[in-house]
Amino acid sequence: MNTRLLTNSKEDIKAAAEILKNGGLAAIPTETVYGLAADALNASAVSSIFEAKGRPSDNPLIVHISSIDDIEKFGLVREFPKSARLLAEKFWPGPLTIVMPKSDLVPKETTGGLDSVALRMPSHPVAREIIKAAGCPLAAPSANLSGSPSPTTAQHVLADMRGRIPAVVEGGSCEVGLESTVITVCTEIPTVLRPGKVTLEELRDVLGQVNLSRAVLEELKEGEEAASPGMKYKHYSPKARVYLVKGSDMAFSCYVNTKEPQSTAALCYDSDVTALHCHTLSLGDKNDFEAQAHNLFAALREADSIEGVDTIYVRCPGTQGLSMALFNRLIRAAGFQVITLRGEGYRLIGLTGPTGSGKSHASRVFAQKGFAVVNADEIAHKALTLPECIEKLTRAFGKEILSPDGSVCRKALGSIAFSSEENTQKLNEITHPVIADLCEEEFDLLCSEGASSIVLDAPTLIESGLHNICDRVVSVISPAQTRLERIMARDGITREKALERMSAQQDDEFYKEHSQYMLTNDTSLEDFTEKAEKLAEELL
Ligand code: TXA
Ligand code: MG
């Protein structure tokens, strides 16, 4: 089959529409990625999409419309729920797909046998014109071969589809560069199935509560069912092996520079390029997530086309806002392989000890000696403000832990979470990974500002497992009687209360077992300060 490259002229758009009307396929530009379109209400046309892409037929397609009225005009849904209407009014035309209960008019081929249909009104003018001219809703998955990165230019489409489809319409490079956000309103609480340009935070602003499907950020266990079939397949993946690399700027370049430069490509940020010896492809400025989204798929394809390159190392994005979509695509491209680096750029000293031991004083001494200090308590407070954390906590402990404004009420959370060992464990399982991630981010930031020695001041350093990422652990201990007096004076509490607090803490043996250095605070403050200063100098 000869594949025609059509322009966006009136005649060419008409030609594409004719192909579609007659049950044929045409690749069309949208603001997210190029789509491989067919008449969504024509079962045999839709079947040929799966064939051309080599896509499993249980993976449902998105149905594209050119106005909200098309939903009624073509009778696409059994019900247009209020939440869906709110979202459509706010985000359409644009990169949001809404899954709703389907009508009988939508063939099961289009929805992969599901009882729901995914609808989207793209904002790309060429896409809208083609839908209008075709006079039917268009089913369109991304126009790549199944499994490979989505196409963001007409050339990408041709690279995958030449000879397999009759036409590609040229529409320039896709502005967003990542596929639309997919949200379903068929669940009791609307749920994001695939993150995209429209973020979880923006969706919550419109609907209040919105859940995040587990498959978005984590690998599904074997046999576990995906709410969105697309999330279970290997995806976005070039031929070369892709690794996500988590770590500071310096750690990333040091690590990648240990690899054979000819067979290695790095997908990095502008500021990394000069430090790297291998082939580099910048996704843009480190803080410009829109640029990174726009460039990601093109960069994956380009890295793959460099002769001799068999491994691609990619900087691991965060999971907030638009970064969540970048992470979601990359973690799949990497087959869930993440390499976590640490320590090359800086030395990390963990500082811990029971309450009243003098840990905070030691921390101040270390700061005076030139250490950058990260306070784990402050990080833990920050963790409780993150939407992903709040969501998991409310799911575990109920809405009682929330203040009227939707933020976490720490007192309410504490009284529930510490009421039983099981609850405490649940709390830790939710918060510890988030705290660890935030700590890493903070270390990176300090490192990029020039810090080479960092103290992580954490009362439960060892209990939380954070000591495992430290190069050295320092524990401050002090005799029980001295601690008792200090706690009573410092916090203005009774002897009983102070004893109760102390009884919940670990004994000296526990600290000795997990630390390389012990700072004993058992004589005078001057003496203790001197000891701490000496140790700080030794560790610098
Ligand atoms: O930006 C986009 O959405 C692009 C452009 C062309 O519009 N299209 C696209 O389609 O990315 P595709 O087929 O590559 O991805 C569709 C995703 C899949 O993950 C699929 O499982 C999910 O949407 N999906 C479609 N219908 C669904 C349904 N009824 N229920 C749950 N998930 C659905
Ligand atoms: Mg796709």
- Number of DSSP strands? 21
Q: What's the average pLDDT?
A: 93
What oligomeric state do the depicted chains represent? Answer: single chain
Tell me the Rg in angstroms. 28 Å
Describe what you observe in this structure:
It is a single chain. By secondary structure, the protein is of the alpha/beta class. It folds into three domains: 4-87 and 100-177, DHBP synthase (Alpha-Beta Complex), CATH 3.90.870; 241-340, Threonylcarbamoyl-AMP synthase, C-terminal domain (Rossmann fold), CATH 3.40.50; 347-384 and 432-539, P-loop containing nucleotide triphosphate hydrolases (Rossmann fold). It is built from 19 helices and 21 strands. The strands form three sheets. The chain has an eleven-stranded mixed sheet with strand order 1-8-2-3-7-4-6-5-9-10-11, with helices on both faces. Strand 2 (26-28) and strand 3 form a beta hairpin. The protein is elongated and about 90 Å long. The model has no long low-confidence stretch (mean pLDDT 93). Bound molecules: threonylcarbamoyladenylate and magnesium ion (MG). Magnesium ion binds next to loops.
